[in-house]
Amino acid sequence: MNLELPTITDGQVEILLADLLEHYGYDFTGYSKASIKRRILRLYSLDKALSFAEFLYRINNDTFYFKRFVEQITVNVTEMFRDPVFFKTLRDVVLPKLGTYPFIRIWLAGCSTGEEAYSISIILKELNLLHKSLVYATDLNPIVLEKASQGMFAMSQMKQYSENYILSGGINDFSSYYTANYSLAKFNDELKSKLIFSTHNLVSDHSFNEFQLILCRNVLIYFDRDLQHKVLRLFDDSLEGLGYLALGTKETLDFSPISPNYKRIPAEKIWRKVI
Amino acid sequence: MGKCDALIIGGSAGSLDVLLKVLPLLRPDLSFPIVIVIHRKHGTDSLLPELLSGRTRLIVKEIDEKEPVLAGRVYIAPSDYHTLIEQDHTFSLDYSEKINYSRPAIDATFQTAAEVYREKLVCLLLSGSNADGVNGLKSVNGWGGIAVIQDPATAQVAYMPEQAAIHAKIDYTLGIEDMAEFINLLS
């Protein structure tokens, strides 16, 4: 077995990213280079492109293939109650604070296929806050949003999700939130009654509301420092005073110009806007 | 021996014991960074950096995203992310699909480092029970770097270095007691 790996040069990646911006208005130029290159290479070999020229031509001229391209190069790996300790802090600290407000607006940026959105709905429901909450779950990729809005996830994942849920402080029988439908678990409609799925591109779109909680976990790792700063400013513009910003386990506000306005919850990647 | 700009060490089952033996013997003034990618279960805060820093005078730290890769340090890949190395010698983290059932995947770090450091990269694959790292070593071959494996006869689990020996071109095969001297001489 000699699996020769295809190669694409950094120059070719630049050409491709420039074309995407010009033809489709999708700007991936601020993405971390090694990561996006790996994603492109992965699709390139998955689809057995004959040459880089052919691959590029297809992306530029076949809108159906372009959609596949966007779906495949963005990372859509997610799970329910991922990092249970984080969700426990949401449940025990953050959401009870926000529960004193008459109305709670939450933005989940980069929601992918929706697993986190439903996780948040479950916690809101258990805290008796769902009726006065609205969760805007956004992603740049319309295909994953379509999937998210269906609220159906693989039955094979439920054991893991149930364990995560219990570790995050869940108090009910996790299986009471879905009905098994062959290989899929369909989550109860009540959970999506306060979820609004919509496209939003963090790179090019503006602030669209003011929120008390913004979650954006494991999205900034794909951006270079400049783009990270830009997106963090967008979050700052979209967050009310005393609102919370939650990032992924390995992400930080530390190097951003907005960091002086924020105070971190110890040991968590959650910051509170103090100005 | 040629100048080394980075040493990446990958391993899985049975590799921690090797690191615990080798790290104490390393010079504290190594002229290149060491990046360690070890498979482990995703849990809460990992104890690995703490465990290893007790065994060496080199600075040991878990990798933060966008952090510059500096000489004389030992970097530990965080659990549940892939660690990539960028052309500007910084780390990127990536939460994409598991590779070879693993995240971190040794392949991801070997492959991206191969392109960055080229003939000045040394990759060492230790004991382990799956074939992660083998494709990475093939990339290292392709970019002119140096591929090294733990002698399978000395490995607690020989499968990983054995697979590497079958599928990649191996420049050196080292017993555990030879590793520290080999690494020190790269400096």
From TrEMBL, chain B:
A biological process from GO: chemotaxis
Top-level class of the enzyme under EC nomenclature: hydrolase
Pfam families tied to this protein: CheB_methylest
Gene3D superfamilies membership: Methylesterase CheB, C-terminal domain (3.40.50.180)
Highest rank taxon of the organism: Bacteria
Domain CheB-type methylesterase, first and last residues per copy: 1-183
Reaction(s) this enzyme catalyzes, per UniProt: [protein]-L-glutamate 5-O-methyl ester + H2O = L-glutamyl-[protein] + methanol + H(+)
Key words, A-Z: Chemotaxis, Hydrolase
Assigned EC number: 3.1.1.61
Transmembrane segments: none
Positions of the catalytic residues: 12, 39, 132
Keyword Isomerase included in the entry's annotation: no
Matching InterPro entries: CheB_C, Sig_transdc_resp-reg_Me-estase
One GO CC annotation: cytoplasm
GO molecular function terms noted in the UniProt entry: phosphorelay response regulator activity; protein-glutamate methylesterase activity
Protein's UniProt name: protein-glutamate methylesterase
